Amino acid sequence: MRFEKKDILDITSLDTKEITMILDTAQGMREISERPVKKVPTLRGKTIIFFFQEPSTRTKLSFEIAAKRLSADTVSIAKSSSSIVKGETLIDTAKNLEAMNPDVIVMRHSSSGAAHVISKRVNCSVINAGDGTHAHPSQALLDMMSIREKKGTLKGLNISIVGDISHSRVARSDITGLSKMGSHVTICAPPTMIPKGIEALGCQVAKNMDSCVEGADVIMMLRIQRERQGNILFPTEREYASLYGLNPHRVKLAQKDVIVMHPGPMNRGVEIASEVANSDCSMILDQVTNGVALRMALFYIVAGGSRHADSD
C-alpha cells in the first residue's frame, strides 16, 4: 500500500487502512531507536522545517529526534524569531519558507485550521503538530500505537477519556481515531468542559467519573488547559481532583489489566495521582518513546518514498 496524501492534517481525513499502515510503519521504526547507532539514511538530502508558533516540549523534541534519526536536515523557527512578530502574515511566512524548497513543514499554531490553510498554499508536505483546539493527529496516532502494542488490537476496547475535553485537540483526535478503529470511547468531565455535540465524533458521555472508568481497558487522562480557558470552569483544584482525578481507588474499578495514559504535561495531584502515574499500569513514558517512532513513520510516508510522486 502506498500513502496517497500529501499532508497529515487530522485524523478525520485518514481511513482505517491508512491509520493501520502508519501504525505498522511506526512499529518497524521503533527498532531503529533501540540500535546502538540510532540513525538510518532514509531521508538523507531531505529538508524539514519546524514551524512552531506555540510552546512545545515533547512534540517538538520528538519530531526533531525523529527527523535526525532518519538523517534529514532540519531547521527550527519559533514565533519570536519569525517575521510574524513584524507583521508578516502566516501565509506570506509559509510561502517564503516554501521558496527555500523544504520537503516537509511541521507546523503548530494556536488557530484551529491553520495547518489546513497553509497546506493548500504550499507544494511541500505539511504535518499538523497541533492547531488550536482542532486536531493533533500525531499524538492520537502514537496513542493508538501504544494501546495496540499493549493490547494487541484496538477493536472492541473500552476506552475512557477524562479531563478538559472542550479545549483538547488530543481528545478530539483520539475520539475520532479510536472510534474509527473499533474502540468504544466514553468521556467524562465537568459539564463546563464538555462541548455540545461531541457525541457526533463517536463517543458517549458518562454521568460521573466512576461510571466512566468502570470496566475500562484504557484510561486516558487530560490536563486542565488553563491557557485556553477564558473563564474558571470549576471551583477549586481540590474539588476537581476529588470528582475527576484518577486515584488508586478509581483504577480498581477498571479492568485488572487496565493501562493508564496521559499526553502530558501532567498536573500531578489534580487530574492524576502520583501513585497512578508511577504505577505498573502507566504507559505515559511508553507514549513518549512511541512518539519518536510514530513521527519517524510520518516523515517516511510523506517524504521517504511511500507516496506516489504524482499524488500532489
Quickly list its features.
14% strand; 312 residues; alpha/beta; five-stranded parallel β-sheet; 9 strands
Characterise the protein shown here:
This protein is of the alpha/beta class. It contains eleven helices and nine strands. The protein has helices at residues 16-33, 58-69, 90-98, 114-119, 137-151, 169-180, 209-213, 237-244, 248-251, 274-277, 284-303, and strands at 47-52, 73-78, 104-109, 125-131, 158-162, 184-188, 203-205, 218-221, 259-261. The strands form two sheets. A five-stranded parallel sheet has the order 7-6-5-8-9. Strand 1, helix 2 (58-69) and strand 2 form a beta-alpha-beta unit. Helix 1 packs across helix 5, helix 1 packs across helix 11 and helix 5 crosses helix 6. It is globular, with a radius of gyration of 19 Å. Residues 308-312 have low confidence and may be disordered.
Alpha-beta classification:
alpha/beta
List low-pLDDT spans. 308-312
Strand and helix order: HEHEHEHEHEHEEHEHHEHH
Helical stretch tally:
11
Report on the biggest sheet: 5 strands, parallel
Shape: globular
Average predicted local confidence, pLDDT: 92
Helix coverage percent of residues?
A: 25-40%
Give the CA-CA distance, first to last residue: 17 Å
Widest β-sheet, arrangement of strands: 7-6-5-8-9
Beta-strand segment tally: 9
How much of the sequence lies in strands comes to: 5-15%
* Rg for CA atoms: 19 Å
Outline:
With 312 residues, the protein is of the alpha/beta class. Helices cover 36% and strands 14% of the residues.
